[in-house]
């Protein structure tokens, strides 16, 4: 359906009208005598609005941003985890199924808009606790401005938690400011600051593209607050990440990533926990 909409809007103009992606990740975590394993898989589909992409000398990964390609997309994902340790009668485990739609649009020469809606269902059980079902609706609205290759977005996200039918609004929501720019058509920089329940977070992302087909990325995220949807306990978290992107063909890309996460409770009610995550992704331009 998304492909038909894109083709109807874009007509027969040459160039990709959208992208399809498939990704998976696996992680291992340990701390406080516990070990945890998790896995995730996702499918994404997006269509460019107003115009197709066209081939130029810019890095293939940056073409949608540099060419101001508005997009409408959707994603479905599934994940699961299992945590075990001495003293647990059985592993604590859970599964998540989620879906989302998003719009990233240029509504004028300067004005931009990002909006998304997401819904996830999480089930947990085992360990020392009774099983629970979490419903996680998410809504994001982010108007912004674009000057040249620099974009500023001031947004709001409402992300309540519904546990076994009990609603928790988790405060007034989350405000964020994101600034993104590209230097010389090769260096991508994005900075994010966000207010979350009982604290805030900051994220800095960098990516350099020495050629049109190859890119290296790195990021650092720091957060302190109630960062987990199923708890109001305050944690402190550091999260460096690294990625590699290689366009094997002009229409197909391979992505490899590694992320390390260190979390620790601020009030001492728990133990630090370290997680190593490896990811693999494929993206395909659709014509």
3D architecture notes:
The chain has 287 residues and is mainly β. The protein has one domain: Outer membrane protein transport protein (OMPP1/FadL/TodX) (Porin), CATH 2.40.160. It is built from two helices and 16 strands. The protein has a 14-stranded antiparallel β-barrel. Strand 10 and strand 11 form a beta hairpin. The chain is globular, with a radius of gyration of 20 Å. The two termini are 15 Å apart.
Write a short abstract of this structure.
By secondary structure, the chain is mostly beta strands. It has helices spanning 2-10, 63-66, and strands at 18-31, 34-49, 70-85, 92-106, 111-125, 132-147, 150-158, 161-163, 166-168, 174-183, 187-196, 199-208, 214-225, 235-249, 252-265, 273-286.
Shape: globular
The number of strands is 16
| CATH class bucket | Mainly Beta
The rounded distance between the terminal residues' Cα atoms is 15 Å
Radius of gyration over C-alpha positions, nearest whole angstrom: 20 Å
CATH topology: Porin
Layout: helices, strands, pairs:
Elements: H1 2-10, E1 18-31, E2 34-49, H2 63-66, E3 70-85, E4 92-106, E5 111-125, E6 132-147, E7 150-158, E8 161-163, E9 166-168, E10 174-183, E11 187-196, E12 199-208, E13 214-225, E14 235-249, E15 252-265, E16 273-286
Antiparallel strand pairs: 1-2, 1-16, 2-3, 3-4, 4-5, 5-6, 6-7, 6-8, 7-10, 8-9, 10-11, 11-12, 12-13, 13-14, 14-15, 15-16
Fill in the keyword field for this structure:
16 strands, 2 helices, mainly beta, disordered N terminus, Porin, 14-stranded antiparallel β-barrel, about 290 residues
């Amino acid at each position: 359906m998304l492909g038909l909409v894109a083709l109807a809007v874009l007509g027969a103009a040459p160039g990709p009208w959208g992208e399809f992606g498939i990704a998976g990740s696996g992680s291992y975590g340990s701390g406080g005598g516990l070990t945890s394993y998790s896995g995730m898989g996702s499918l994404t589909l997006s269509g460019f609005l107003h115009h197709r992409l066209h081939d130029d000398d810019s890095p293939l990964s940056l073409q949608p941003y540099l060419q101001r390609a508005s997009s409408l997309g959707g994603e479905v994902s599934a994940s699961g985890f299992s945590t075990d340790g001495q003293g647990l009668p059985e592993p604590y485990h859970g599964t998540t199924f989620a879906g989302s739609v998003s719009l990233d649009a240029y509504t004028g020469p300067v004005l931009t808009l990002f909006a998304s809606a997401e819904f996830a269902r999480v089930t947990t059980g085992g360990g020392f606790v009774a099983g629970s079902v979490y419903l996680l609706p998410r809504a994001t609205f982010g108007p912004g401005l674009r000057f040249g290759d620099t974009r500023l977005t001031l947004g709001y996200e409402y992300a309540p938690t519904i546990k076994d039918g009990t609603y928790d609004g988790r405060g007034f929501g989350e405000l964020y400011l994101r600034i993104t720019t590209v230097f010389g058509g090769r260096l991508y920089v994005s900075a994010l600051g966000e207010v979350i329940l009982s604290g805030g977070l900051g994220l800095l992302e960098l990516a350099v593209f020495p050629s049109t087909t190859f890119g290296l990325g790195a990021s650092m995220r720091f957060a302190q607050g109630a960062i987990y949807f199923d708890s109001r306990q305050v944690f402190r978290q550091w999260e460096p990440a690294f990625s590699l992107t290689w366009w094997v063909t002009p229409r197909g890309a391979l992505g490899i990533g590694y992320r390390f996460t260190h979390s620790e409770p601020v009030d001492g009610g728990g133990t630090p926990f370290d997680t190593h995550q490896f990811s693999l992704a494929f993206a395909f331009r659709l014509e």
